[in-house]
Amino acid sequence: MRGLGNKTPVTNGRTGIKLQLLMRGLGNKTPVTNGRTGSGGYCDNALGAASTTGHGESIMKVLLARLVLQNIQTGLSTQTAAERALEYMEQRVGGAGGVIAINNKGEIGKHFTTERMPWATISEETLEYGIEPKDHYRETMTKS
Fold first, then answer.
1. Which pLDDT belongs to residue 75?
2. pTM for the whole thing?
3. What is the CATH number of domain 10-115?
4. What is the phi/psi pair of residue 84, to 5°?
5. Backbone φ/ψ region at 103: left (φ over 0), alpha (ψ -120 to 50), beta
6. How do the domains of the chain map onto residue ranges?
7. Which residues pair with 44 in a beta bridge?
């Protein structure tokens, strides 16, 4: 699946929140091996998990994924936490990017300041996905 950027399975189950990143970076560079995720993701079972994509240097400078969880910790919704973190990054260092996050209650937030960002979530039997800013498609998944 070359060219899709970060692929981030996140689960929020009985054993807690888990986050796994596969990062390709801009221009389809060699994938980063599992376990060497840099500052692209952050997970804390007490708060949630966030995965980021976009301009890596800007993301590292503001610790974007951690900033999303810090915003959640202050009481913001997962959606607002993602939006505010990206606003801060743009104002502080001029970077663009995207975030998909989940809090410890299973509430999803996603936002991006890039032209587009492929995203998808699965909850129970519902698949939600998009790529363009206004996209929000929903499909019911059937068991085979």
1. 97
2. 0.77
3. 3.60.20.30
4. -65, -40
5. beta
6. 10-115
7. 48
Q: Using the 8-state DSSP alphabet, how is residue 125 labeled?
A: T
Nearest to 8 by CA among 37, 45, 29: 37
C-alpha of 77 from chain center = 14
Q: What's the full length of the chain, in residues? A: 144
Distance CA 141, CA 137 (A): 13
Mean pLDDT, the chain cut into blocks of 10 residues (144 residues total): 41 57 49 47 88 90 94 97 98 95 92 92 88 94 79
Q: What would the two tokens of residue 10 be?
A: 């996140």
pLDDT value of position 125:
87
DSSP letter (8 states) at residue 15: T
Q: Residue 15: what pLDDT?
A: 53
Looking at residue 106, its amino acid is G
CB atoms within 10 A of CB 52: 35
